[in-house]
Amino acid sequence: MASRKENSVLLLSLLLIISLFTSYSAGIAIYWGQFTAEDTLANTCATGNYQFVNIAFLSQFGNGLQTPVLNLAGHCDPRTNVWVQFYNNPMAQCQYGGNTNDLLNSWNKWITIQAKQVFLGLPAAPDKQAAPNGGFIPADVLNSQVLPTIKTSAKYGGVMLWNRYFDIQNGYSNSIKSSV
Predict the structure, then answer these.
(1) 3-state SS, one letter per residue, for the chain
(2) Per-residue pLDDT for 73 more than 50?
(3) Which Gene3D superfamilies match (predicted)?
């Protein structure tokens, strides 16, 4: 198992590489690192499907005594991009449930916050493990009814998918990347 110092060096290296290739165009983001069956990070990046790979590591946690800390080493302002989960929360009336009205109304509220880019967070599969409480949008509906509307926002950053494992199983990013 890698040491905390090695993990910090790896994270710092990834942030440096990402900062060299910063782009303000829309893209697909994916969560990686939650399941062992989601392939390697290198293979995830090599697909060419994702502009962003979210690797959510905490630098300090555990023992019930420490407050979790995300150490970004001063390299970015977390308010720059906002990744909104538009699924798994039917009570919030922000997700797709057969029509796009609630989702688009919620999107219009989110783009008023102080952020450079807002990402539409969706499950990558209709599987109940991906989103037990709903919110999956079939690719044809996303491509024809949702993306044409939200892409008109200057704050549109792209689509964030939960997660790489479900994307492997469903091929969702391949179905949407030309429209993102």
Answers:
(1) CCCHHHHHHHHHHHHHHHHHCCCCCCEEEEECCCCHHHCCHHHHHHCCCCCEEECCCCCECCCCCCCCECCCCCCCCCCCEEEEECCCCHHHCCCCCCCCHHHHHHHHHHCCCCCCEEEEEEECCCCCCCCCCCCCCCHHHHHHHHHHHHCCCCCEEEEEEECHHHHHHHCHHHHHCCCC
(2) no
(3) Glycosidases
